[in-house]
Write the structure tokens for this entry.
Amino acid sequence: MFKSELIYVQVNRDSFDCWNFTLNKREVYSSDKSFSSTRLAIADFEIAGEALSTATNYSKWKYFLRSKPTLIMHQRYNGVDLSPVEIRILQELSLMAGSRETFIWQGAELTENEIRQGVYKNT
């Protein structure tokens, strides 16, 4: 079976910083339309979902022969401690963008070694 790509996504105001750990490729994607508000990192779910799909480069046609990616979602906008609603938004958003599996990370930015060790799985 095909191995799933691992993508570390940092959610910022109206942008996603995506690090495809499997391909060692990093890119910041800023949406043309605003999906954040002063209170929420993801205020418009539909726009954010389209932006995340584009940012992670996932489309069912492009990845016909590859498995869906695993996403590590890390919200960097509006504080560190996420409410249960914000966690659910990130989980649903990653599913909408085509992820196979999602991990929500809260805390300091993950390093390459921490990702390699799977520290994000302990949350």
The CA atoms of residues 83 and 89 lie 10 Å apart. The chain is about 25% helix and 25% strand. The domain at 6-122 is CATH 3.30.420 (Nucleotidyltransferase; domain 5). The helical segments are 45-55, 84-96, 112-117.
